[in-house]
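Quick entry between incubations.
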Amino acid sequence: MDPGETQQIIRIVIAEDNDDLRALLPPLLNDTADLRCLATTAQIADVAGLITRHHADVAILDIQLRDGSALKYLPELSKQFPATKFLIHSGHSNPDFIRAVQAAGANAYIRKSGDIDDLIAAIRGVIKH
Amino acid sequence: MSDAPTSLPRVALGAVRSLRGKLTLVVLLTTAIALLTMTTALLRRDLVQYWHSLAADLDTEAGILSLSLAPAVAFDDRRTAQRNLSALSAKSAILTAALYTVDGQLYASYARSDAQAPPARFAAQDGAARLADGRMEVSRSILQGDEKLGTIRLTAAYDLWEHVRAYLRILGLIMILSMIVALILAARLRRSITAPVDALAGVAHEIVTRGDRSLRVPDTPLEEFAQITRAFNSVLAESETNTHELEQINRSLTRQIEETRAAEAARRVAESALRQSEQLYRAIGESIDYGVWVCDATGHNVYVSDSLLQLLGVTQAQCSSLGWAELLHPDDVQATVASWLECVRTGGAWYREHRFRGADGHYHPVLAQGVPIHNEDGKLTGWAGINLDISRIKRTEEALRDADRRKDEFLATLAHELRNPLAPIRHAARLLGLRGLDEAQTQSARDIISRQVARMALLLDDLLEVSRITRGHLELRPEQVSASSLVRAAVETTRPLIESKGHRLNIQMPEEDFDIIVDPLRISQALSNLLTNAAKYTDPGGRILLQLHRGDGGVAFSVTDSGIGVPAAALPAIFEMFSQVNSAIDRSEGGLGIGLALVKGLISMHGGSVEASSEGAGRGSTFTIRLPASSVRDNARIHGSDPPQRLQQGPRGRILVVDDNRDAADSLAMVLGKAGHETFTAYTGERALQIGEREHPDVIVLDIGMPDMTGYEAAQRVRRTKWGNDILLLAITGWGQKEDIERALKAGFDFHMTKPADPERVENLLGEYLKSRVRTGSKLFEERRDGSRRDSANHPHRHRGG
Amino acid sequence: MRERGFAQAMLVAAALCLSFAAEPAHGGDVYSEEAVKAAFVLRFSSYVIWPEPPAAGAAFRIAVLGDVAMTSRLQALAENRRVGGRAIEVIPISNVSEARDAQVLYIGNRRSGSLPALLRNLGKREVLTITDTANGLEAGSVINFLIVDQRVRFEVSMEAARRAGLRISSALLSVAVRVQGHGVEQVVNGEERR
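Done. Structure below.
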């Protein structure tokens, strides 16, 4: 990170149905200087509303939520929020799956098995592009 | 007159049968015919001559008379005329003489004394003599020159019959004489003819009756017979020779026939062997479902076994040539036929999988194998092969693939699920490293770690359990516990989850509690699994009904939810290891999809069953655990009689039958099993110990004489185990002596029975034992056992008292 | 053959009957004395043998002297008859000398006195002389008619026959009433015959 640069706050909303993970991610992300997790939800249906309300720059979506598949909603969401980057957070590692995800309009894909740092880097990365 | 005698002889000849007779008859007949003919001719001639002479006489007389009377008539001298006529009396032959005038009037007459007078009138006839009134009559005209003066009529006696009779008398005499002479001659002739014939006949007869071909016919002077005799003799000589030859030929023929027969017999044996071999091969062919087939050198089918014809529901004609290709699966036809034709072309072996359309309409996969057949010259004569039914293999393959797939899925899921808790743990740990955490956050992080670790542990435990179950390494620890207590334990375990989802739990249990003999941990684990599933797969605010009831002598736990239900298609496989109904939900709750498999495994180990039912997706489901009657124990009852339903059958137990005689073991086990007991069989002592350890039977029926270890040994080892210490041990032996019984009891057996084992007695003993165990624990029985041991004779003792 | 014979007989009988019927002059009785005598005359011829055979083709002559009735009768009978195959000629003569060519001379019942002279005049001629008078034979005829028992009979003179050179059949003699000059006279009524 460039020290001289004014740090843009990246506004993040998270959709994750695992309660524990949902509880852990915000503080971890918020520990960084540039990332702010503003809202979390367990329902994909809430995502659109949250993005709007918090002006999210990034939406981290778990692939399969209780009320639906992120993939299904993704194309709509990405159309609706062209400025917002969508990052799929999933346990799968199937390459075909990854391709499908990208084809659906995801900007990035990150596996859950990784460290928090990977997630942070991915978020920053997706913003840059 | 000459015709009559000749047909009669023919008849007569026909009637006589012997040569002798015929000869005699011929001679006689010849003589008779000759005589008759001659007689007839002579007689005729004689009669004619008689007539003629008489007529001539008469005529002459008439002539003379006419001459002599002419003048008398001419000159009308009646007296003279009369006188002349009267002179005829000298001629006795003349009957009447009459002189008539020209106008036919009688002029003068003469009649012999006995003769009738001539008629008064007479019409002149011609001069020829004629027969009138049995007399010869001659009339003549008396002429003078050309002038007729009158007529003279003479009659004479014409005694034909007298003449004939006289003649015949002579003839008769002559004939008799001739016949006699003829007979004599015939006899002599006959002898000369019949003698050689008789000789011939005699020799022939002798030859026929005695079979002696060395006989010969004696010579005979008769030329014809001599020829016959010579011919006969030469025939006999030849026949003698021929006989020898024939005998030789006969002998050689007999030999040949015997050889042929032997060859024939050998051939038949060979044929029979061939037939048997053929039958064997045919049977083998028929025993193969999809049968045996034979094709000719051009690759056209010529034979298909009946078993295949039946399976495919076609006739041989329909299979012949390339007809069988019609029965292939449409997708296989082209390739298979092409491949076959190629095989035919190259003369190679045939090995191909394809599908046949069976008579049932389904397609059956077969593996067709065939080999080319060559004759002695190495020329290809066709193919012979079999079709193997590989449907089971295919199914197995598919099942394996399926299982493999599921396993892969499971592994993926497992990996996924195991990883799931890792992220929170990692993140929580990371969090804990952050500065500026408050207490709440710290605690939260720790909780998260604990929770996730616990979840992982659970997951891993479940996995290990399932693994152990499938590998048969899980050990049950049965105890007698109250069924309701199990229910309560399971409910406690799952209460948090149920409450968290806001479900309403309803528990139904019978009023009277009862015990069951199970591994309590496992049963409650199974129950909790079911409850957990019910909670998981029901939307919040649902209803869960947990029932415990007794029925069919056993016990059933059922869990009914109002959740997402199970689609009918998924029902059959629901208890399988890696099936998942709704992977999303399960995964989100951290499940592996092995819960039901675990339940099924645990319950099966208890000898029970578990079943699932659902009306379909979204309509809830019911899972029922059933445990057999043998698990059920009533609570101890001191007074009172047993409930009626239990009197129908005695208490059920788990019986292990051990006998190296498999039939004996199996049959006893079967009888006992039919009576409702749970039975196990072992054919060796070692195996018995294994099964006993695993199944914890209530009673072991042990055959003493077994190969690997004696029953005594086995009993001792059983007694040394925890599970076998108290159980009922029954010895079965072939001997019933007092020493044997003592020995058995000393080895640790409770009772002793002689072979064959009586199932009823086993049942009775078992029943008594079980009852006593429930009521009083095992100890009393132990004491009793000690006490009763000493009193035992040949009979197994019955439990007394109580 | 019988039929033919019979027919023949009948014809002959018929002819005979007719021939007899053809003599109306003498009334109904065919067997009148003259008729019988005429018949006898002709019949005698069959029993007499003349010494010289007749010339070929010559007729058999019967001369009748002085009996017209006999002549006509004889002529009637002679019409269809033959003697020895010869036709019969009946010649009425008035003189004995005219009888020389005849084989038979019939002298009717006439003067008996002149008869012997007549016959002598005939000489040695071979003529069968037949008379019908008493003592005719003594007169020198060969055959003389008699009536015996109302039947026409005759007598024969062998002497006369000899003289005339004629031979007489014994058959004729047997039916003669009397045969003179044969040595023994035959008596008619007797049964002795020669």
